[in-house]
Write a structure and sequence with these properties.
This protein is α/β, with parallel strands linked by helices. The chain is built from seven helices and ten strands. Bound molecules: adenosine-5'-diphosphate (2 copies). Residues 13, 15, 20, 22, 40, 42-48 line the site of one adenosine-5'-diphosphate. One adenosine-5'-diphosphate (ADP) is lined by residues 13, 15, 20, 22, 40, 42-48. Belongs to the ABC transporter superfamily. Pfam families: ABC_tran. This is ABC transporter ATP-binding protein. Keywords: ATP-binding, Nucleotide-binding, Transport.
Length: 233
Amino acid sequence: MALIELEEVRRSYRIGGSWIRALDGVSLTIQQGDFLAVRGPSGSGKSTFMNILGCLDRPTEGRYRLDGIDVGRLHHDALAAIRNRSIGFVFQSFNLLPRASALENVELPLLYRRMWPGKRRRRALAMLEQFGLGSRASHKPAELSGGQQQRVAIARALVTEPSVILADEPTGALDSQTGQEIMSIFRGLNGEGLTVIVVTHEAEVAESADRIVTFRDGRVVPEDVGTRSGLNS
Ligand code: ADP
Ligand code: ADP
């Protein structure tokens, strides 16, 4: 069974008297363990696609199955439960809580689960240590470099053991060497079986992926499905 299955997904927005089709018939299958890069010009539907994959938004038409569950039909609370259980998010600007320590930021997703605080803390610390940040646990985000902040954000995304990581321009705020370090973390995690989906404008970053999907006008450009063609286009 595929981890992610989209069938003819459409997402429309009503603006004034007219409709905008942010996604206009997207069909795509993503297997567990895939590493997918998502490209396309601004306004082509990438954010809308990621919001739907992440259960932050629902298709207007069509079907989205995540782990066999037809999530497009779920109500808000059920959608939030699936999101918290199955999805890890990584953002361009890290989105860490500025007043919280690195450790508290990583613990945060576990607060929503009934987990004893000592266990929560140990698990969060183990995640930080996995990314070489054990000695930075008590630092606030502003006391860390961009690359360190993104590693804290990756630790936070993984602490709940999600089935898929959705990363929106995760290297966009980093210099290219740090960006490569972040991508090699994703490659390593993917090597351990994690499904990774990364939106990127950078060809170098897209080359880390096994598969590139290019969006244009709310559709997937057909020749890019399942191939590495278009890498240098
Ligand atoms: P990208 O991430 O590739 O820049 P988006 O998914 O953000 O593309 O946008 C796709 C299209 O949908 C654009 O025309 C955008 O203006 C429109 N759009 C996206 N979100 C909304 C929204 N919440 N309300 C109205 N229009 C939107
Ligand atoms: P990105 O940098 O990822 O392309 P955008 O700046 O296009 O992001 O959009 C940021 C957020 O605003 C997204 O969640 C998108 O859905 C929403 N958005 C984009 N275009 C519009 C629009 N025309 N009207 C309302 N919301 C929009």
